[in-house]
Structures are given as structure tokens and as C-alpha cells.
Amino acid sequence: xxxxxxIACGAAGxxxxxxxxxxxxxxxxxxxxxxxxxxxxVFSWTGCYLGGNAGGGWTSHDGGKGIIxxxxxxxxxxxxxxxxxxxxxSGAIGGGQLGCNYQTGLFVAGLETDIQASGIRGNSTIxxxxxxxxxxxxxxxxxxxxxxxxxxxxxxxxxxxxxLLYATGxxxxxxxxxxxxxVLTPIGDGNYAGATSDTxxxxxxxxxxxxxxxxxxxxxxxxxxxxxxxxxxxxxxPGRPGTFIDYGFHHGDNIVRAGLNWHFGGPVVxxx
Length: 272
Description:
mainly beta, Porin, 2 domains, rod-shaped
């Protein structure tokens, strides 16, 4: 009987202890673990790229400014000789580019070089009647840009991570050809002609915008002014040694083009 009483008392004590422990556990504060988050990838323009482009160009002036440099009685001191040959040029261009960028904050600095095939060309024919007793004349002029390239610095900023707006400028180079002729009527009074073919070095400046998409790709639109300096065409007449007429051609072209670039290694290079 005594054993039964002891067992009953022990069971009652264990029950009371368990209840108190449960109550204490319920009243204790519960701390939840913060969820583990992975930051979204951050776009960066840092890195190198390779791409292609196509567009068009046109001259920003009238080509072929004429100056008579030696006297010839049949020319009547230039009466009837066109002052300008008006060889305004235009045409398509296309080529490729290679460059590298470095981004810090919102700003991007870089260097780009490109090489272009060019169909920019123009020609003109100007006929002048007899003026003050001079011979009627027919003048022709032509100008062409066969190829050109640029090596430029780029400096821009990113109003949103995937959009780069930039200014650019540097050195330009290219192959230019110019020609001119002046034929008097009758032809025995003068038949002048000349041509030049040069590789010229000059400067370029412009601006553009580039948008990144689909991982490694970006597309850009760009304007450049390319100035390759001047060439002088000295027209001579084999039948009149010592007489010549110069026409000066200034090679300045406006270029508008669109391009597509592939960024090596992908544009996403950092996580925060």
C-alpha cells in the first residue's frame, strides 16, 4: 500500500513539472531567422567588345574651290572659269570596330578603333558661256572617299545601367581621290586636267548612344564628323607649259551609323 502511495505521488510531481516547463516554453520569445537573399546581378560596361556597323555619309561643303595660279591670255584672267566645282558627295559606309571600356560609378571611359569601306563620292559638270569675249568652258570635278578609319577616346555616363550616352573624338585617316578638268571651246584654246590620290590624316569628333540587351550584346547609334584636311589638284595643259589652274578640295564628311557589339565575357561582372 505504501508503495502505491509513493508511485502516485511521484507521477503527480512529474506531471506538475512537465506542465510548468511547457508553460515556461510558451511564454519565451521566439526569434525567426532572416531569409538568405541573393542580390540581383549588376550591369557594368567594363570590358572589351567587337562589332560591326553600317550607315552613310555626306560632305558638309561644296568641293573644289578654284584659283588661277598662272596667266593665260585665252582664259581672260579667269572670266568664265568656275570658282567652285560643287562636288558635294554622299554614299554608304560599312565596317567593324574594336574597343574597351572602364566604368566607375555612373561614368564610362574607353577607347575604340574602327575601319570602314566607303562609297562616299560626288561629281559635277559646270558649263559657262562666253563672257566678255572669253571662250565658253566646261569644267568637271569629282571627289571620293574610298576608305577611312578612326581611333577615338569615348567618355560617357549611364542614366540607367544598360544605357550609355557618350562623346567621342580622336584621330582619323583615309584614302581620298580628287580630280578636275577645264576644257575651253575651241579645245585648242585650252584643255586642262589633273588628279590626286592621297592617304590623309586628320581628326574626328562626335557623339552617340549605346543600349545593352540579351546578355553580351549592345546596339549603338553614332554621329561623327571626319575631317581629313585638303588636297590640291593642279590642272595642266600639255600644250601650254607653265600654265596651270588649281582646285582645292576639303575632305570633311558627316557620318551617321548604327552598330552591333559583342562584349567578351558578358556584361554582368559584379554582385553586391
